[in-house]
Specification:
Helix content: 40-55%
Bound molecules: nicotinamide-adenine-dinucleotide
Largest sheet: 6 strands, parallel
Strand order of the largest sheet: 1-8-5-4-2-3
Distance between the termini: 33 Å
Number of helices: 13
Number of strands: 8
């Protein structure tokens, strides 16, 4: 076998339906008595429901989490962390809520219990992206990894179909890039292929019937597997491009990943034939890029970067930013190649 390195992580995972009921016991298991419950403004009602079940274990709430973890919001929550003398945090929501408890943990090492309600996969990683003055900086630190994940499938039922599919494709992007990563290993590749298989089967079913709990359960499981791949491997062109576009044009995180993924897979296919063949096999598709585009279209959400707010003249700017510091990638990154990729993604042209 090819020699490899693999770093396992210590994290407790509770998976099922109505597992929210287990949260007080999980908090006590960590010996915590005063937690802060964190959410985005849009998910404050769900957070209140969580708070009701916690009684005295909840010391307060903070419902101002935002995408890309701006440091101004972190500064504000840190005041509450100190004023309330909390001993742990609970995030209820997607990557934005979880990003904020991770930012608190980076500064304090306070234990985190996270309840993911999207498929972004952030809960399984030690990675945190923080934004200061419009620039996103990524850190990887063991303090950032949440101690406990409580996956409650029931909480994902309310995730609208387009966001479910976009978010699921965001998770698949971790797994796809993990397959062609320079530090891929047999364990991460096993998790990646299975993550893509679960999500690829589940997302079209969710699009047909958003109340299909079995499909929601498989999507959440696939999201966890894919999050573990993100944690275990180094990402390449796809994640860097999403980072560039998100930072430069403030585009929706999940939609950017979902729209770009089929195009990046087509671009990288010559440089990573075996990884791309594994993606196609996991999707049960003849062509990996076309299979991913089908999943994107099934969600009924945006399929073009122009539809999520990217200006046409932004393509050149994005290429310039990318070329200042191009990442490692299995296929050589060229100005013309990436420009063409972005033009197709901007117009929403199908792949295949
Ligand atoms: P999000 O957390 O921003 O949520 C998107 C919107 O959906 C929000 O308005 C939220 O309130 C709402 N929402 C969430 N769950 C819902 C539900 N079940 N029902 C109805 N509405 C719901 O979106 P996201 O894509 O999960 O997270 C994006 C953020 O996560 C970005 O900042 C990204 O950088 C970060 N992220 C980090 C990692 C990592 O490993 N560090 C991985 C993936 C994403």
């Amino acid at each position: 076998m090819t020699p490899f390195h693999y770093q396992s992580t210590a994290q407790r995972v509770v998976f099922g339906t109505a597992t929210l009921n287990d949260l007080p016991a999980e908090i006590r298991r960590l010996d915590l008595r005063r937690v802060l419950v964190v959410s985005t403004p849009g998910h404050a009602a769900r957070a209140s429901q969580v708070v009701e079940g916690l009684g005295d274990l909840c010391a307060g709430t903070f419902a101002k989490a935002r995408m890309h973890t701006p440091v101004e919001v972190t500064d504000e929550v840190m005041t509450r962390v100190r004023d309330l003398a909390i001993d742990g945090t609970v995030a209820v929501g997607g990557g934005s809520a979880i990003g904020l408890t991770k930012a608190i943990a980076l500064r304090t090492d306070l234990p985190q219990l996270v309840i993911p309600t999207t498929y972004a996969g952030s809960e399984a990683t030690s990675n945190l992206g923080e934004t200061r003055d419009g620039k996103k900086r990524s850190v990887k630190d063991p303090r950032v990894l949440p101690e406990v994940i409580v996956y409650d499938v029931a909480l994902t039922r309310s995730l609208p179909v387009p966001l479910s599919c976009a978010s699921g494709l965001n998770a698949m992007a971790h797994a796809v890039e993990g397959l062609w990563a320079k530090d891929a290993n047999p364990v991460s590749s096993l998790l990646a292929e299975e993550g893509i298989r679960e999500l690829g089967a589940a997302l079209p079913r969710i699009a047909e019937d958003p109340g299909d709990d079995e499909a929601r359960s498989r999507a959440l499981y696939g999201a966890w597997l894919s999050g573990m791949v993100l944690n275990a491997t180094s990402m390449a062109l796809h994640h860097r491009l999403c980072h560039v576009l998100g930072g430069a044009f403030d585009l929706s995180h999940a939609d950017t990943h979902a729209i770009l993924l089929p195009h990046v897979v087509a671009y990288n296919a010559p440089g990573a034939p075996s990884a791309v063949a594994r993606v196609a096999r996991a999707l049960g598709a003849d062509d990996a890029a076309a299979g991913l585009f089908d999943v994107l279209r099934a969600g009924g959400g945006p399929v073009a970067l122009r539809d999520i707010g990217m200006p046409a003249d932004g393509i050149g700017r994005a290429v310039d930013i990318l070329m200042q510091e191009p990442p490692w990638n299995p296929q050589p990154i060229t100005r013309d190649g990436v420009g063409g990729l972005l033009e197709r993604a901007w117009a929403g042209l199908p792949r295949g």
